[in-house]
Amino acid sequence: MSAPTMRQLGDVIPLPASVRPDATADFRVTAGVSVSAAPAAAAVAGELAGLLRQVTGFPVPLADGGAVRLRLDETVDEAKSPESYRLDIAADGVTLSAPAAQGLFAGLQTLRQLLPAQVAAEAAPAEVVLPGGRIEDEPRFAYRGTMLDLARHFYGPADIRSYIDTIAQFKINHLHLHLTDDQGWRLEIEGWPRLTEVSGGEGTGIDGQGPGFLTAAEYADLVAYGETRFVTIVPEIDLPGHVNAAQVAYPELTCDGEPVQPRTDAEVGYSSLCANREETYAFVDDVIRVVAGLTSGPFLHIGGDEALSTTAEDYRTFMTRVLPLAGKYGKRAIGWHEMAAVELPPTAVPQYWRIEPADDGVARAAQSGHQVIMSPADRSYLDMKYDESSPLGLDWAGLLGVERSYDWDPADRLPGVGEESLLGVEAPLWSETLRSLADVEYMAFPRLLAIAEIGWTPRADRSWPSFRQRLAEFGPRFEAQGVNFHRSPEIDWK
Ligand code: TNX
């Protein structure tokens, strides 16, 4: 048997809040290892046993009195985040404890990264060693998200599930799905079949290359799948602009009732719902009711961006009527920051994407108690090119290398929107130049890991040299999982 390889206790992304290595306490995972768990932790325990099996080749049964123990633990301070956990690695065993299943799941992701990347050959089981010590961890922000744009290019349920699996490993806990735009409508809505029959069909998407839609049942399944990875789905119906696909399907949604042509180009800002027609609100109420009914998470994103062909007055009329509909159907509205131009319901969350600070009401909203999601395009837009040689991506917000995506802080972006006003951070990935899950992965990895660390790790503990060094270890991990990534020359990949 070859000598067991070992990782360092702090070799984790995102970096945990507290890491105390103890070189005398390494734990050797040997042939007899088993996992024990409180009944409420059975799912996470099953996953951990599976991981250990994969890495070592040992049988790793679930059994009482196992050396690897998972506990839902009252001794952990209940006032802490449900995502908090404590991981103790000692010579005689490993104990993972948390106040809630989310915390156990977060701790499992840490443990996964402390195991070697290798997968044991079936014929040759191999011991591995976990580095000794204690990790105590909890997130900086409750919302750590990323976004997929299904409208410009559709990705099916298998791709989305695979993406959820990958992002959850970095403690990303929200997946925002941009479901509708000028080029396509990607979620079946009961009572409005033409939305997806016409605008989800062949020839939709950028250059007609991204057809497809989620049936209501497929979407509900994805929501449920996300729950098992503690990833909350945030559906977006983009309103009142970005609606050409809806108007192609239902011409009565235009101001003059005249049909409009399908569009497969990347222009923005030319379409709008009509603020002074009741048909508009009947449609929007219905769509929000249906989407809310299919979504278990607390959020519903109503878009609100780039409504360049809606007058300011119509925008205000429309948003003032539509924003409360999220609450009417039990959801909390998120919208791109343009919506902060109107009086917001108390729980509404502006998502800020601007490059340069401007007076668009976001600071005012924060001062009156609104939480904000930070997604500045020049730091968090995963569809920006890495550098001039990037085969995919746009560059209107600048080039976005890995260091640039790491070396900023959401609490410094906008005067008046500090730490206490932030719900969290999100990295959107628009699909104009993407054609496959491999393209998505290439743009997201490794930059999404930078955003994940910004969202999780205490600000004072972050540094680019440390991140850069830890990131290098993830090359072989992505490869072992078959996840595509950009071998950025900024990193000395292992
Ligand atoms: C801006 S910023 C958009 C999207 C585009 C994206 C491309 C924002 C809320 N909207 O419509 O897809 O740029 O980077």
Automatic annotation (TrEMBL):
The keyword Secreted does not apply. Its EC number is 3.2.1.52. GO terms for biological process: carbohydrate metabolic process; glycosaminoglycan metabolic process. It holds the Pfam family Glyco_hydro_20b. One of its GO terms (molecular function) is beta-N-acetylhexosaminidase activity. It catalyses: Hydrolysis of terminal non-reducing N-acetyl-D-hexosamine residues in N-acetyl-beta-D-hexosaminides. Residues 141-308, 312-458 form the Glycoside hydrolase family 20 catalytic domain. CDD domains: GH20_SpHex_like. The keyword Hydrolase applies. Residues 11-137 form the Beta-hexosaminidase bacterial type N-terminal domain. GO terms for cellular component: membrane. Keywords: Glycosidase, Hydrolase. The active site is at E306. Belongs to the glycosyl hydrolase 20 family. PANTHER family: BETA-HEXOSAMINIDASE, BETA-N-ACETYLHEXOSAMINIDASE. This is beta-N-acetylhexosaminidase.
